[in-house]
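dumping this here so i dont lose it
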């Protein structure tokens, strides 16, 4: 594809970059007249909308009670220790508006009808429909990212959302746009998702039976050229329906609309429609627990939306493996998280339920060993000693050089990667994951429980049935006698939130969940160490220092200074 280097000052406006008074070299510019007539260049604008998609590799858990990051320069660590401000915000997503303007420009080109994607008139029309649907869906998604990060109570006391941009704005245009109310922002995003659904195929498929009604008048051979399986990593109608469920759950959450205006109902409805299309709870993929450990698992039915599988790499393993197997041990899970994993019986890990503080990892939820390197674990071909010990394992137990908490990360890492002593590696392939079916099951369970409690049914699904299936897959002993004791909405809410914490751990959800639930961000990180004779808990190995108004993150101060109509969130 031709490289598009465009003199787009709109990007500098929304990222705070100050443009200089010079002209780019003409040879490095493709003006919009050319882009509007060249299919590859025009599609390049659309593909900009696929950059910046949020995946599972943020490791933002270092800003929460789930992990400590060992790099002093890490942005989430600095944020958690008290540096979060309107000038310094590693969780900011204001720059996502860049992608909005790219896709808005692409939509102008589509609406002008200037591009010939194919000489066949019907195929050309199909390309226009599908790509317009992609652009509108991506516009909605990038606005959602900004809303998730920056919605909040403004200095006026009103619950505010974000500006919503449906048009391309020239570099000398007016960007001084006020924030919509929170619910107006949600509705604007939802409207775009709904319009996209009238244009996108539910799935990119070679099966004539999968053709959506609005495409029924087209010849199937033409349809396959445009909507065949070769495009199955692009945004589809199925993905948009799942994104609508995610948006509705976010909107309904306690920190925002707190159950008002039916958004929990909508989240449960949207999620159930997609889940029933894969067979309901019977469609919960058995490989979903370890979707990252092999190429086959990455390709499994757990994936609702992912990127292509990349080239062999060991970047994440080099950062996260324990030092004794030549990693840097960067992210250390906390004892707080370890204690959130129940006993294998399904009951919480308390001494009354059989938890032994001096044999802390015995008879526990099997997910604990799958996701976290524990003291004495075998990982990377070695026994990892995070407590007192000798030999090379001592590398893994010195706090100032290795683990802060007594634990290392295992989840998201390929166990078949090897990092050799001479610095060479045997890398394995990874994929960016944008949406897993397990998340959608948990969205349904949370929303349906808030509507009607543990056994409330929506399209044949209930929170209890979903949580039962997730815990059975995890290896919780059957029958699940603890789940039987959950008979009210409050107890089920706590269980669903805990299952979400475990199932989606280290995938970039915890920080955003704590904020939308209105829970404290200041839970100190705890460690747990073997001192040679006993295990001992070390509370507050790293304290958290968030302002009480940090539930709502700030608008970047540079934007507030430039645009008089932007209202800052309260406290910043």
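and the seq i came up w/
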């Amino acid at each position: 594809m031709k490289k598009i280097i465009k003199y787009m000052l709109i990007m500098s406006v929304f990222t705070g970059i100050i443009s200089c008074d010079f002209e780019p070299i003409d040879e490095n510019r493709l003006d919009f007249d050319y882009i509007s007539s060249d299919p590859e260049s025009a599609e390049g604008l659309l593909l900009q909308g696929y950059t910046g998609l949020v995946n599972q590799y943020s490791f933002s858990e270092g800003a929460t009670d789930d992990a400590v990051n060992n790099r002093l320069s890490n942005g989430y660590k600095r944020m958690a220790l008290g540096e979060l401000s309107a000038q310094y915000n590693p969780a900011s997503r204001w720059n996502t508006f860049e992608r909005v303007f790219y896709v808005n420009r692409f939509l102008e080109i589509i609406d002008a009808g200037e591009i010939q994607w194919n000489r066949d008139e019907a195929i050309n029309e199909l390309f226009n429909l599908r790509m317009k649907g992609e652009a509108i869906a991506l516009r909605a998604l990038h606005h959602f990212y900004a809303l998730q990060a920056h919605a909040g109570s403004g200095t006026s006391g009103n619950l505010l959302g974000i500006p919503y941009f449906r048009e391309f704005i020239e570099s000398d245009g007016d960007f001084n746009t006020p924030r919509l109310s929170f619910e107006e922002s949600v509705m604007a995003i939802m409207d775009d998702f709904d319009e996209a659904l009238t244009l996108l195929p539910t799935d990119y498929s070679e099966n004539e039976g999968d053709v959506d009604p609005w495409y029924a008048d087209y010849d199937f051979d033409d349809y396959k050229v445009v909507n065949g399986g070769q495009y199955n990593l692009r945004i589809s109608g199925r993905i948009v329906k799942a994104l609508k469920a995610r948006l509705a759950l976010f909107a309904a959450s306690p920190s925002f609309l707190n159950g008002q205006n039916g958004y929990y109902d909508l989240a449960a409805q949207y999620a159930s429609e997609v889940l029933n299309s894969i067979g309901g709870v019977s469609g919960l993929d058995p490989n979903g627990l370890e979707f990252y450990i092999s190429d086959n698992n990455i390709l499994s039915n757990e994936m609702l939306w992912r990127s292509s599988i990349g080239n062999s790499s060991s970047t994440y393993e080099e950062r996260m493996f324990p030092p004794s197997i030549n990693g840097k041990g960067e992210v250390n899970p906390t004892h707080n998280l370890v204690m959130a994993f129940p006993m294998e019986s399904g009951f919480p890990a308390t001494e009354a339920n059989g938890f032994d503080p001096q044999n802390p990892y015995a008879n526990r939820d099997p997910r604990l060993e799958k996701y976290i390197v524990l003291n004495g674990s075998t990982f990377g071909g070695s026994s990892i000693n995070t407590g007192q010990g000798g030999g090379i394992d001592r590398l893994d137990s010195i706090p100032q050089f290795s683990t802060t908490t007594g634990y290392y990360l295992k989840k998201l890492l390929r166990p078949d990667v090897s990092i050799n002593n001479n610095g060479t590696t045997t890398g394995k392939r990874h994929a960016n994951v944008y949406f897993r079916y397990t998340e959608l099951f948990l969205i349904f369970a949370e929303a349906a429980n808030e509507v009607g409690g543990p056994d409330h049914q929506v399209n044949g699904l209930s929170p209890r049935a979903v949580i039962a299936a997730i815990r059975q897959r995890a290896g919780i002993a059957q029958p699940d006698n603890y789940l039987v004791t959950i008979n009210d909405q409050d107890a089920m809410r706590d269980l669903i939130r805990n299952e979400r914490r475990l199932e989606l751990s280290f995938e970039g959800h915890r920080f955003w969940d704590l904020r939308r639930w209105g829970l404290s961000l200041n839970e100190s990180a705890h460690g747990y160490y073997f001192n040679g004779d006993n295990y001992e808990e070390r509370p507050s190995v790293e304290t958290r220092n968030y302002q009480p108004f940090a539930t709502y993150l700030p608008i970047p101060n540079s934007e507030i200074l430039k645009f008089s109509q932007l209202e800052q969130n309260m406290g910043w």
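Confidence is low (pLDDT under 50) at residues 1-29.
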